[in-house]
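for ur thesis appendix - DNA 3'-5' helicase. copy paste whatever u need, i formatted it the way the template wanted (i think)
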Amino acid sequence: MELKATSLGKHLAQHPYNRVRLLAAGVEVKGERHEYLIPFNQLIAINCKRGLVWGELEFVLPDDKVVRLHGTEWSETQRFYHHLDTLWQSWSAEMSDVAAQVLHQQYAEITRRIQQEKWFKRSDMQALQQNVRAAFTGLPLPQARLEDFENCREVWLQCKAWLEQGEQRRSQRNTAFTKHMLEKYADFFQKIESSPLNPSQARAVVNGEDSLLVLAGAGSGKTSVLVARAGWLLQRGEASEDQILLLAFGRKAAQEMDQRIAERLHTDAISARTFHALALHIIQQGSKKVPRVSELESDTHARHQLLIESWQQQCREKKAQAKGWREWLSEELQWEVPEGEYWKDERLAKRLASRLDRWLGLMRMHGGSQAEMIASAPEEIRDVFAKRVKLMAPLLKTWKTALKSEEAVDFSGLIHQAVNVLEKGRFISPWKHILVDEFQDLSPQRAALLAALRKQNSHTSLYAVGDDWQAIYRFSGAEMSLTTAFAHHFGDADQCALDTTYRFNDRIGEIANRFVQQNPHQLAKPLNSLSKGDKKAVTLLADDQLEALLDKMSGYVQPQQRILVLARYHHLRPAILEKAATRWPKLAIEFMTIHASKGQQADYVVILGLQEGKDGFPAVVRESVMEEALLPQPEDYPDAEERRLLYVAMTRARHRVWLLFNKKEPSSFVDILKHLGVPAANRP
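the 3d part is after this line
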């Protein structure tokens, strides 16, 4: 059957199409130079319109495309339209049965997937949506028409919703799953730790995403959650003991975690490792030659002595080296350098030793050649950095010679070797789940080791617990963006937070949290306290009142209660503490730097040194070009890391914190704390 425009209609319409022919399951629209074949499975609608004299047929296609035929005789147009529409509707009804079958099968598959008793991961959602899209491409009807058919409408809308509202539906489904798990395994969450897990801890344990960052503020039970997560994987049969890898950042932390696992999980088959122990294990399994870690890595004094002696030798024997180092120390770092043979000055050498150690560590951590190191430096400091690398080169050579003579490796070399073994496929990871504590302290080198492990098996999950508010180790290479931009570095990821602290009272929590969150770059998270504290729980006190404060504390602090006295640097230890054992024999007083106090807790904390100027807090840390080139760029916020350092110091305390400030030269933090409502006292 065919419909043609009349001669006059064709002339007046001046349209590319002037006739249409009915096909078996479609129509062919043609003109003198154009033709368009429209199968029924691409038709959205057919419209028949009447002009002043002639008729018009309109074929609506997907994406708002329209093909029109003008200038046909009206009665013939009507007759053709009714015949075409009858055939099209009959075909559509038949095809709707086929579509309904496909859609019902797909919805049954969706239902099967979401009813499985396991966490519905992002990868699961991606697979589900991919299947839905594939099913839609196999439908005999355009998707825009499916709502018109009763046998397709409801199931079509349900399938479509999983495409358009995928993340919302995934979240709702996982919320319901979590609630069910907390009810079904209530006994597990009650007994896995010495006290029952709170709801936020339990939710973090149940979350089974491939990559998960648990933001855990001070005293919120990070270790408890990691141990409980390992127990949960065993309880649910998601992993065997040898498929779980626990990573801590130091031997002591690893030992404490092992002890907790033995007590709570009643197994010694899961053992926490440091990153260096992990690297050593990988190399031992994937290489014939088993490396030995240099004794210099555990002997700071010997390491410093080696570097200083090498530095002194270079300055003594080479005038260019002596001149270069003088320029570096005096002009860039603005140190006072003695005239003449300055390298013999013991005070200067002692001060420089830790800097040489740090610079050497950063160069070793980089791992590339000196040329690659220089090429990767920011262009504006590249020339100066090249000079600094040249000055450090003899010390780097001395270090490598010392390692060679020991037939040993250093920590950086250990991790580089381990990554190399993994990339060459000499070690096959047995771990399905990697659990990492203190994630905010992760360096790019350690992140590369994790990435190499996960590259071997894309199904290996990464469960990380950390707190960007406690990121205070940038100077040693830690990169906070690995935490704050977790999903960017480790793929699609979930994020949750532990919202309760078991350590400090609500007054300490309020001041510490508001203080650190004034920096907009810090991740916002709730951290509620279980105990109440009065307005004096955090107090600013003049720094000449330390002795009077300890005198007063001796009257009410119990012998078993711990007092921490914290300062920015070791050399700020107050002289009065030398007499503490006899002056206040019943007080358990300990002094340490704030960096060393991380992970510690005490009943009372005294923080020293809130002053401006030399040895001030916040410290005026003058970075060398070495740090600028080899460390992550600092945040664009004043004293960002120093703020986090004070947060760490304040949150060591259970009951009270005193912040001792200099009345003549108060720290810039003093006014900030006063604006947050911290009272200032002249006497304790």
